[in-house]
Amino acid sequence: MNLLNDNKMNFMLLFFIIVTVCSCKNDISESDFQYDESELLKERDDNSEFLIKSYRKGVDSTQIIWQSNNEDLNGDGINEKIKVVVLDENFFQKKENDEESYGAYLARVFINDLSEDIILNRSISNDSNYKVSFKIIDIDKSDSLKELLVTQYEKAVEDPSAIHLIYRNFGRNLITQTQITSSGYSGGVINFRDKEFDIIHNRNPETIGKYRLNKFFIENIEISIGQESEIIAACPFVYVKNGNRFIYKGEIIRNLIGKKSEETQKLNIGISKSEELIVRIKEEKKEVSYINYLALECNNKIIKPIKTKNNTELLLDDNKYLTLKKGSQIDLVFKVPKKSIITLIGKGYYIPN
Questions:
Q1: Cβ–Cβ contacts within 10 Å for residue 175, how many?
Q2: Average model confidence (pLDDT) for the chain?
Q3: For the whole model, what pTM was predicted?
Q4: How, if at all, do strands 245-251 and 287-298 pair?
Q5: Cα distance between residue 195 and residue 191, in whole Å
């Protein structure tokens, strides 16, 4: 009997020691590793034929531009840990010059342990025209789910195009992202209704999209298009091929009316998914666009389109123009690095009819 009690006491003591050790181990936090980044890059680039090296840096609190810890997105009764972290240190360099603050800055949205990369179009600056907002919304109040809405505006002094990103969380192993874009002359205004919402995509012609929640993403249920105004003109639309269809990315040479207004503009078109990128420039308004030059910017390098008999006017900034009238378009093929941030560069102007 005593032997049994002794064994029981020994077992309980061993169990207590194991629990205590495990608890202490979980309380141990790793210290930040101090390193010389130039040395890191040098070693990474020193490769042999059979080696490929990469690394990922951690983030700290100074890189967080928005966070929320008091909202439950998936309805499980536990608040999510949400934060938006900027990974490009150039984003935080305040600049007075509006042109210099524009770019393509890699950021990451975290919802608990899951994350999704996004591109921010402008660094922190004193430019009042640039806006980016983060907001928890509740599209369908009859369910227990909420959504994260990220809205930002493209570079334009007047009537900027809007990009809306809606994130949904379904637990520990799934988040989804739906991107909805709006052309200029719209402001990307969202009107929330019962279980649905409308977005004004364009003012000319007035184009309104109606949306609602699907099982995982946001679905479009209706697009209504009004009459086109003769007063407002816009600029060529930019599309990027994704699979078998072209996805709208924005507009180029915006608000550059007449030859005297000609200048260079940039448009972020996302992250390349393959080594071939097809960009479509399409004139959809009652105007004539005169495009002097088009190229891509990637990793601080300029990439010109593959030369064809139809795009020779676009290869050099030499005042030789490609002319696009309403209904006309051109497709440009580029060879780009995979999984890289891509920016379209365009120079030209347009004349409303």
A1: 22
A2: 81
A3: 0.67
A4: unpaired
A5: 11
